[in-house]
Amino acid sequence: MSNNLPKVAWIGLGIMGSPMSENLIKAGYDVTGYTLEQDKVDRLAAAGGAGASSIAEAVKDADVIITMVPASPQVEAIAYGSDGILENAKRGALLVDMSSITPQTSVDLAKNAAEKGIRVLDAPVSGGEAGAIEAVLSIMVGGEQADFDAARPLLEALGKTIVLCGPHGSGQTVKAANQLIVAVNIQACAEAVVFLEKSGVDLAAALDVLNGGLAGSTVLTRKKANFLNRDFTPGFRIDLHHKDMGIVTDAARNVGAALPVGAVVAQLVASLRAQGDGGLDHSALLRSVERLSGQPVQA
Questions:
Q1: pTM of this prediction?
Q2: Tens digit of pLDDT for each residue in 106-119?
Q3: Which parts form a coiled-coil structure per UniProt (predicted)?
Q4: Is 79 exposed, middle or buried (0-12, 13-18, 19+ CB in 10 A)?
Q5: β-sheet bridge partners, residue 163
């Protein structure tokens, strides 16, 4: 495909990365992808992209490199080292890291990349798998205004609310706040569900009317079916939310902000993971409330 759009390398084709990269292909971008699972690389190729057999091969001709991996250690693993992005990307390339990692990792990455002439944005997202598929993600960005302006057309193929939040690391800070709000919101919904059920109320009717008032939320809209059907197929895994609650509690401690309710929910997420539910969707916080309330928990 020959066009004037920047050539894109995409590293990390998981639950989020696969549909997002495919949305870029649909928008006319030339996308070369690399990830650890060959079947995900094959999926990208089937969607009209190109597969690469290494990070170096994926990034060598790219104008824009997008990364979407689970956490800080994976970002560092793909960015640094002789086989990594910084050693193999061309000078002037723009690296957009859409992973959710610690703000400090993003600050360090931007600094190290600048020495190679590579520009960086941290651009974590909110909206989960559904938001990725529908290209309606909220994208919170940290970095320079000029780089944000350059990346904006591409980000518009992936999301709906795209905001530059400040310098490097700011996107990650806002994402951490997002994960705090989402976890506390899911926990509140889960407690309401168990309370309603134990009271013998029609749960579906109750959630409908609650969602139409001040208690309504995007979380309740997106997770209502999970609660009703006890369907915890992961859109966003407890394991990853556990990682994010660690990021937000640590970052808050560093700046001297108290998160009393967030700390409790972080422990509930940790306990759910300790009970073997880490691979389930974060709406499975319902299971911990069921256990605490003496409700039978489905296997």
A1: 0.93
A2: 999 999 999 999 99
A3: none
A4: buried
A5: 140
